[in-house]
Amino acid sequence: MDHDPSEAVRIKALFAISCLVRAQEAGLQQFLRLDGFSVLMRAMQSNIQKLKVKSAFLLQNLLINHPEQKETLCSMGMVQQLVALVRSEHSTFHEHVLGALCSLVTDFPQGVRECQEPELALEELLKERCQLLRNQEEFQEELDFCETLLRLCFHSQPEENNMDR
Question: Which InterPro entries does the record cross-reference, listed alphabetically (predicted)?
Fold first, then answer.
């Protein structure tokens, strides 16, 4: 999946990996043994939009269904990598990256602490993103993820919501 020149082959390979790791424990163990999370990260950094979306979605699914992997992902620098992806030019792909980041920090203090690192400047990024997305229905889920991350990591609400209370 990492090196094939064909976009279609890479996307189909990711689909097959997704089926294997979500359907059976042996597939997940092989995925972990072969450093599958690094492969997913490289896929999210590719120029192929469909591959980026599907890999971020799979990462989020794995985090939800296998929270025991959160420590491994944090030790790999996944928080920093995901934040860097969110900083890239705005795309519909960001919804899935933010969803994965939400899953990574939910009920996981180490993930929250990493999001709070000053050099990431994540709180400011999330507040800016909330302003950008507000009142745009097509980005509602992404906005929800931003607001959830602000609440979980920084115990804050977007400014507009605070005025309503």
Answer: ARM-like, ARM-type_fold, Armadillo, Hsp70_NEF-Inhibitors
